[in-house]
């Protein structure tokens, strides 16, 4: 279901200039950014601004651009590996281990569903939805069984081998929850009956309240789902730290949804405990607007605010990244992921 994008646009930064006025209506997409928002982005005024207020046009004003030319995923990851080994030459090379477990996933975890198609099934009668859901469950259970059989050939003295199959089961369970939430969204909301409105208006009120409850949990669920997906690759998110930048009197705050660190032994050349960010993730409940195409820009696919926020978050992490002066991140639009790099 989720998976790496085959296209990896880079961000490139030239030099810092001025911050522009964003003329779009104020919109906060990331709840984690609202607690310290004191004012909206506005030209010439001092203030404290969250990254979610930024648009791609604001990045362009300080000469930060997305490279629209796609890069082959394998080539991109090779560059990441080279950057890590350049900064930390004593770091272990986990290429063989990565290839082994990547092969296991490709061979045994093959179920795949289009979330938009699942949403379309909401219109079906309840029995039809149940039948379709059962077919999906059967597919997922089949992959779990294949993975369990594969585990029998593992050396369970190895820590990663012991962790792999439990991670597969956990991911399968979360996928089932996602399918159910997509098929039966109303059931996720709690409807409060109100005695002070007319019965004819009660149904409309219920629908609105259910939609609001579903919307409220949706992005949080996708964020958790993304975290569970990372466990298939033995990734555990670290505490997310807010970074603060200053642009022309404006205090800009950046807080990604998830952050992963590269945990190195002291002899590996780590002199600063903060200098361990491997990559960050920004999760959105919004789907990709349109399919990836050579003729469709990245901004059209994900939207100007997503690019503005992610670009700023990657810029904020450059001094704390193991890839510095570069940084690495992922945009996760529901269950579709796009790798992004910030490169000088």
Please explain how this structure is put together:
With 344 residues, the protein is an alpha/beta fold. 42% of the residues lie in helices and 14% in strands. The protein is built from 9 helices and 9 strands. It has helices spanning 56-61, 73-87, 95-108, 115-120, 126-151, 159-183, 199-231, 298-302, 304-317, and strands at 10-13, 47-50, 64-66, 243-247, 250-254, 258-261, 277-284, 327-333, 336-343. The strands form 2 sheets. A 6-stranded mixed β-sheet has the order 3-1-9-8-7-6. It has a 3-stranded mixed β-sheet with strand order 2-5-4. A hairpin with a 2-residue loop joins strand 8 (327-333) and strand 9 (336-343). Helix 5 runs antiparallel to helix 6 (159-183) and helix 6 (159-183) runs antiparallel to helix 7. The longest helix has 33 residues, at 199-231. The two termini are 33 Å apart. Mean pLDDT is 75; it is low at 1-45, 187-195 and 206-217.
Content-based structural category: alpha/beta
**Low-pLDDT residue intervals, each spanning 5 or more residues:** 1-45, 187-195, 206-217
Helical residues, percent: 40-55%
Oligomer: single chain
Strand tally is 9
Largest beta sheet, briefly? 6 strands, mixed
Shape: globular
For the largest sheet, list the strands in their spatial order: 3-1-9-8-7-6
Residue-averaged pLDDT, rounded? 75
Total helical elements: 9
Give the C-alpha Rg: 22 Å
How far apart the termini lie comes to: 33 Å
Order of helices and strands: EEHEHHHHHHEEEEHHEE
The share of residues in extended strands comes to 5-15%
């Amino acid at each position: 279901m989720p998976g790496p994008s085959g296209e990896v646009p880079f961000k490139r930064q030239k030099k810092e200039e001025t911050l522009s006025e964003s003329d779009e209506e104020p919109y906060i997409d990331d709840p984690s950014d609202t607690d310290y928002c004191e004012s909206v982005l506005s030209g010439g005024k001092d203030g404290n601004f969250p990254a979610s207020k930024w648009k791609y046009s604001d990045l362009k004003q300080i000469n930060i651009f997305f490279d629209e030319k796609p890069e082959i995923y394998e080539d991109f990851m090779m560059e990441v590996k080279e950057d890590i080994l350049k900064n930390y030459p004593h770091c272990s090379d986990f290429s063989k281990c990565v290839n082994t477990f990547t092969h296991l996933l490709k061979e045994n975890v093959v179920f795949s569903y289009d979330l938009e198609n699942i949403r379309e099934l909401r219109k079906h009668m309840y029995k039809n939805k149940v039948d379709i859901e059962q077919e999906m469950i059967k597919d997922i259970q089949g992959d779990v069984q294949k993975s369990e059989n594969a585990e029998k050939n593992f050396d369970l003295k190895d820590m990663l081998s012991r962790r792999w199959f439990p991670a597969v089961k956990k991911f399968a369970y979360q996928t089932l929850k996602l399918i159910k939430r997509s098929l039966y969204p109303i059931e996720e909301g709690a409807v409060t009956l109100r005695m002070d409105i007319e019965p004819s208006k009660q149904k409309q009120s219920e629908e609105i309240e259910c939609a609001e409850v579903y919307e409220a949990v949706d992005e949080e669920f996708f964020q958790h789902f993304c975290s569970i997906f990372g466990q298939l690759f033995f990734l555990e998110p670290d505490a997310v730290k807010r970074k603060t930048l200053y642009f022309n009197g404006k205090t800009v705050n950046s807080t990604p949804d998830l952050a992963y660190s590269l945990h190195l032994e002291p002899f590996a050349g780590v002199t600063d405990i903060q200098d361990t960010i491997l990559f960050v993730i920004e999760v959105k409940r919004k789907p990709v607007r349109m399919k990836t195409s050579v003729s469709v820009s990245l901004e059209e696919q994900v939207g100007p605010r997503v690019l503005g926020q992610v670009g700023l978050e990657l810029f904020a992490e450059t001094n704390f990244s193991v890839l510095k002066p570069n940084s690495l991140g992922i945009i996760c639009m529901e269950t579709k992921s796009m790798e992004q790099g910030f490169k000088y």
